[in-house]
């Protein structure tokens, strides 16, 4: 069974073609760097509309069978920033540790890191992680949280992810 | 248009005149220190009653047009401590990064910092921030989070706040 | 009046007798080490069933009069991990600072600490704290948060806890 990773860019402007979706591309590049396991990316670039974001998360988790769905955009305080609310609505469990660690890491670079409301949660056998919108922060945040991702996916009965150990070290505690 | 900053002290004893509201005064002094922009303070000292706190927050945001509302008091675990619940009820979006950073800063001074439940959130074009009740902690917490406040208010379409850079440095990322 | 401390192990396997409840024992040992005040432990080992966990928390708080209820197990992302949800359902107030600090401490040891969803909350005059399931992490987490516990219990009008100061130092701010 092929491993599928979902990438959702929530951005009014990128989805309207006003600018290129550099953030979504950055996530796809990072996944290629990290993962030794053969995998397919399922990519969606959509407007900052809460209903659309929720529908897309459901599609990628339930129909496309993505074990991991990574989003970018829509985590700030502005009126159209609703990705964390969408995530909370579709998830059965929230994982506060992801957002806490990502904000802590971003705080080393900018004091406005506290404005990022990104979170993570579990829907069925899928882990959904919100990343910030800026390409530079994406890699910083993924480098911080990804070591815990393969074990998290083991625990929710998803596929076994193998990482390129020279790029990122997955950690699986000895039982 | 004048910039308005709301200050709410939630305290049964201060609102009954049993003691002076040193905390509310400390916030007002700090705003004067921080802000170069001309501004007015709208100040309320009220009991620790959830309904009253919510009504006061709505008044300061919606009727008084405060772009920033800072509260003190009512963030502990005691029965009458209900400011975070009031904040969550009146806000459309919660900003977990503010509470996380304030607790982290206060933890350098006292291990009981984890008992502080303060948070922050967005109501319309207003940012509401809960501070702890103790005057000493107020300045520590504001020094930590305020650099992100002017940019946050830009993002929610509020007025442009200018800071006294020798006192506190506002950070606005280059777009 | 005797001080009562509740200990709940949520574990399908330990409650079925498949393995020994080392984690529950570790908490009881730690309480004996920490507390100078005479106290009784009320111990329950139950399956990872949300309804059962909620009922047990209510019993220990309301009927047994425990001022502190410490749980272990059920804080991960797996389908049967529901202790944080049970805690949130029975508590009037959540205390996010406990989970934040415990995850921060555990992150020094393992990157998978972000998968721990443990929290804490207040039900009436009882403080409920979720600890992780692994015995080693239990002591690390308790050492980090316990200095704030006696003062928290003062604030919710529980009994006065005295600690063995050479083992753990309770902190009570001067009023």
Provide a quick synopsis of the model.
In chain A, about 40% of the residues lie in helices and about 20% in strands. By secondary structure, chain A is of the alpha/beta class.
Give the low-pLDDT segments of chain A. none
Task: Report the CATH C-level class of chain A.
Answer: Alpha Beta
Q: Kindly report the greatest chain-chain contact and the residue count on each side.
A: B-C, 22 and 21 residues
Distance, first to last CA of chain A: 26 Å
- Count of structural domains of chain A: 1
The total of beta strands of chain A comes to 6
Rg of chain A: 15 Å
Question: CATH homologous superfamily name of chain A?
Answer: MoaB/Mog-like domain
Helical coverage of chain A, percent range: 25-40%
**Quaternary structure of the protein:** homotrimer
Please characterize this protein's 3D structure.
Three copies of one chain form a homotrimer. Chain A has 175 residues and is of the alpha/beta class. Chain A has helices at 12-15, 22-34, 50-63, 83-90, 96-107, 135-145, 149-155, and strands at 3-10, 39-46, 68-72, 93-94, 120-123, 126-131. A six-stranded mixed sheet of chain A has the order 2-1-3-6-5-4, with helices on both faces. In chain A, helix 2 (22-34) packs parallel to helix 6, helix 3 packs across helix 4 (83-90) and helix 5 packs across helix 6 (135-145). The first copy, chain A, is globular and about 45 Å long. Chain B binds chain C through residues 76-79, 81, 85, 96, 99-100, 103-104, 107, 110-117, 119, 134, and chain C through 93-98, 100-101, 122, 127, 145, 147-148, 151-152, 155-157, 171-173.
């Amino acid at each position: 069974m092929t491993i599928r990773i979902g990438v959702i860019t929530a951005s009014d402007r990128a989805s309207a073609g006003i600018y290129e979706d550099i953030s979504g591309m950055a996530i796809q590049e990072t996944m290629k760097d990290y993962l030794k396991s053969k995998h397919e990316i399922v990519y969606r670039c959509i407007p900052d509309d809460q209903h659309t974001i929720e529908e897309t998360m459901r599609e990628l988790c339930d129909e496309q069978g993505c074990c991991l769905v990574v989003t970018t955009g829509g985590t700030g305080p502005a009126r159209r920033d609703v990705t964390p609310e969408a995530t909370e609505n579709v998830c059965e469990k929230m994982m506060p540790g992801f957002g806490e660690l990502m904000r802590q890491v971003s705080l080393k670079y900018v004091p406005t890191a506290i404005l990022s409301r990104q979170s993570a949660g579990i829907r069925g056998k899928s882990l959904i992680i919100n990343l910030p919108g800026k390409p530079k922060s994406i890699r910083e945040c993924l480098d911080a949280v990804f070591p815990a991702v393969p074990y998290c996916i083991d625990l929710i009965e998803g596929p076994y992810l193998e990482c390129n150990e020279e790029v990122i070290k997955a950690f699986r505690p000895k039982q």
